Amino acid sequence: MKRMRLVLFSMALLVTLFGLTAIVAYAQVTTHTQAVQNSHVQVTCSGNGCNGLNPQTAGCAATAYTVLTAVFSDAFVQLRYSRACQTNWGRVISRAGANFLSIRIQRIDGLIYTFGGGTFTIAWSAMVFAPVMKARACGGFQVIQGCTAYI
What we know:
Layout: H1 2-39, E1 65-71, E2 75-82, E3 87-94, E4 99-107, E5 112-120, E6 122-124, E7 128-129, E8 135-141, E9 146-147
Antiparallel strand pairs: 1-2, 2-3, 3-6, 3-7, 4-5, 4-8, 8-9
């Protein structure tokens, strides 16, 4: 009799633990799914229509990544790419605090957008549509210090 109660108690405990595990797992999956759905920013441009636009406001920066980084004494210059928009842009990050930053994106065919000014620790250029055409980023702290390679 004691053994039977022990077996029944153990089974009830296991069922409870499995049930709680399933509830917690479902809650985590639901939360993750909602976070992923909420993180999908609406892209507002496509093709050459992205040329000259701000990657942040166009939604292209949300899923972008850094392709290349050039390191200079006072700044990092990054070539960024968005698969969603098929665009590149340059980003400069100050290594010496807020200051005047310059950044330029240059497509190999000569299309160029430059940003310079203000007192920032990070700044970026407009975008160039470049799914197959090579591009590079140039920039620096106060002046253009150098560029990434064309890629």
